[in-house]
Amino acid sequence: MGIRRVKTIVALCAVALLVALVAYRVAKRPARSEVEYWDWLSMGTLAELQTRDHSIAKAEAQIMKDAFTEVEDALSVFRDGSDLSRLVADGTIRVSSTSHLARVLGFALKVADESGGAFDPTVAPLMKAWGFRGGTISAPPSATTISNILANSVGWQRVEVAYGGDGRTVFASGGTRLDLGGIAKGYAIDLAYERLKDFGGENFLINLGGNIRVSGTNGRGSGGWTVAIRDPFGVTGNWQHLPRQLRSGEAVATSGSYERFIEIGGKRYSHIIDPRTGMPVDNELASVTVIAPTAMESDAYSTTLFVLGEEDGRRFIDGKDGCEAVFVGKNPLGTDALRRVEALCALGPRNAMTPGAKTAAKWIADELAAMGLEPEIDDFDEPATDGSARIFRNVLATIKGTGSGRVLLLSHYDTKSGISDDFVGANDGGSSTGLLLALAKHLVASPVSPSVTFAFLDGEECVRSYGEHDGLHGSRHLARKLRDEGVALDAVILLDMVGDRDLTLTLPRNGDARLKGLFLLAAADVGRRQSVRLLPYEMTDDHQPFIDAGYKAIDIIDFEYGSLPELNDYWHTPSDTPDKLSAESLQAVGDIVLKMIDGR
Ligand code: ADP
Ligand code: MG
Fold first, then answer.
1. Ligand 1, from 212, 272, 279: best to mutate by most atoms within 8 Å of Cβ?
2. Which residues of 378-411 are buried (b: 16+ CB within 10 A; e: fewer)?
3. What gap in Å lies between CA 128 and CA 138, rounded to an integer?
4. In angstroms, rounded to a whole number, what is the distance separating the alpha carbons of residues 55 and 128?
5. Tens digit of pLDDT per residue, the chain (600 long)?
6. Does ligand 1 come within 6 angstroms of the Cβ of 275?
7. Tell me, what CATH number does 354's domain have?
8. Is there a single domain that holds both residue 289 and residue 384?
9. Is residue 179 in contact with ligand 1, taking CB distance under 6 Å?
10. Please, where are the H alpha helices in 392-512?
11. Fewer CB atoms near the end CB (10 Å): N or C, the chain?
């Protein structure tokens, strides 16, 4: 495909979807500062130029394209006669020390050494074994195959480098094949960058498959370029801004498993392989973004950090001048929720009408206040039948929406009495409380159209049996209050027991049909449709008082919480502890709720 200037908004959207990184832009700008867009395909991916150097824009695009072609000609393993192919075929090559091969391979070996082999250009035989170099494989390579490859072919120390006095470098491949896919695009960006600067380019951003380097400014803000990285989960379709603008000359790259992967037997495998184990990377990370002084560094380091994981990765990058990393975990919402569930459980039992419940209510309010919200603790007295006072506390907070409407999210936080002295209700009361707090935190940062009111309800659990004076105290109080105040709500969504590792969402029959429909669509969207069961019976839960008050309500509950599928034997037993929960399940329910709210 030739170079083309992108004219339409539709084409721009395609660009945004195709690359992991994109310059953030607004639609309308004064003409002088307007950014011009060009894009084409290079090195098997999308290349893009954004420039404000209008008089030389076309020439810049051509220079960039030529630079990429040159790098591909030198470094592609798919191209016979490229320096890299010759090195692999002949086992040795003698090249100028300033050649593309010498520069890229030299740096790749340095990063390999510094990272203890987390980054390793000799990963090629593993890429092939895992089916990333053509052909289809029906099963992952066997442990024997992998250990043979590791023993005989992988290891950067196999590549020998000798520097000739004549300014030439001799490489010997040591019988292994090389793959520069984790670094070549960055190098190509640097080459193009230098040539554009030499040509007189001033204000531009160049992008090759998400490897970006900028010069000058996009004419907005305080100089530099504002860049956003794509939310790897696409839950809300958000772009997440880098922590700061890119300064002139800086580069950024992202490595992750969400865009390029292979599917074997229905399981996805990352295209980044840990050369120390021979296995595709499967750690806690969804992606890593690295800002660095050059694109070769950001490209190599982002791949390296993805292999190393956050802890070792931070240690590695902290020692690198001018480098910064942004780690994105796989289940950010679920992980945050789980952390909060654990913290809540650590406070001890929260039985209604005990000091434990009061402590929990204060803790919830403090968490909400720490997010910048203004929580309200609504205490109310519901006298017992003998007239003695019984104080309950609901905790409430609202996040204003960007549009109209209002949604109410509910969770009870109290624990069931009479089970054991240390019963903490990790799933029952804990999971939904933790998830609601994590959702609040998320929505503070990225609000949705409707306003969202969070209600943490007290006294859900009954002491003897559910009835007018036992159980559902918080929800009956709130539903009555909202109805009396004439508050309109588009939806009331109750979460209850939503953290079980083995997530089955059992929707009771009492619930609004349209909300159930929305729920099913959202569950399908996040790949959890098969974990949903529509129950043929009703359940007494905190959503019922809202239905009684005329609101549209739904109860999202997993009432199969047990040692085996379909059993519920952890419920209301001392076995209901945080270790039964997972960040994945909490994430899934959180994603479903966000989709339901957003797509009302
Ligand atoms: P992308 O190519 O999607 O921009 P990366 O820059 O992270 O992503 O590079 C991934 C590529 O790097 C893989 O497709 C492969 O060619 C190569 N590679 C995979 N694992 C490693 C590794 N551990 N060290 C060096 N290169 C790797
Ligand atoms: Mg890379």
1. 272
2. bebebeeeeeeeeebbbbbbbbebeeebbbbbbb
3. 13
4. 45
5. 356 665 433 333 333 333 433 443 333 333 556 899 999 999 989 999 999 999 999 999 999 999 999 999 999 888 888 999 999 999 999 999 999 999 999 999 999 999 999 999 999 999 999 999 887 888 999 999 999 999 999 999 999 999 988 999 999 998 899 999 999 999 999 999 999 999 999 999 999 999 999 999 988 877 889 887 765 555 444 456 677 889 999 999 999 876 778 888 878 899 999 999 999 999 989 899 999 999 999 999 999 999 999 999 999 999 999 999 999 888 889 999 999 999 999 999 999 999 999 999 999 999 999 999 999 999 999 998 888 999 999 999 999 999 999 999 999 999 999 999 999 999 999 999 999 999 999 999 989 999 999 999 999 998 888 888 899 999 999 999 999 999 999 999 999 999 999 999 999 999 999 999 999 999 999 999 999 999 999 999 999 999 999 999 999 999 999 999 889 999 999 999 999 999 999 999 999 999 999 864
6. yes
7. 3.40.630.10
8. no
9. yes
10. 432-445, 473-484
11. N
Question: Is the residue at 273 inside a domain?
Answer: no
Going by C-alpha positions, the residue among 274, 227, 281 that lies closest to residue 258 is: 281
* Type of residue numbered 323: C
Same domain, yes or no, for 304 and 353?
A: no
DSSP, residue by residue, 173-219: -TT-----TTTHHHHHHHHHHHHHHHHT--SEEEEETTEEEEES--S
Strands 273-274, 211-215: pairing kind: unpaired
Tokens 């692999």 sit on residue: 88
> Which ligand has its closest atom nearest to the C-alpha of 115?
1
Same domain (yes/no): 482, 575? yes
How is residue 391 written in tokens? 């104080």
Residue 558 lies in a domain: yes
Q: Which domain holds residue 443?
A: 333-598
Q: Is the CB of 210 under 6 A from ligand 1?
A: yes
Tokens standing for residue 302: 């982002």
Residue 471 CB–ligand 1 contact under 6 Å: no
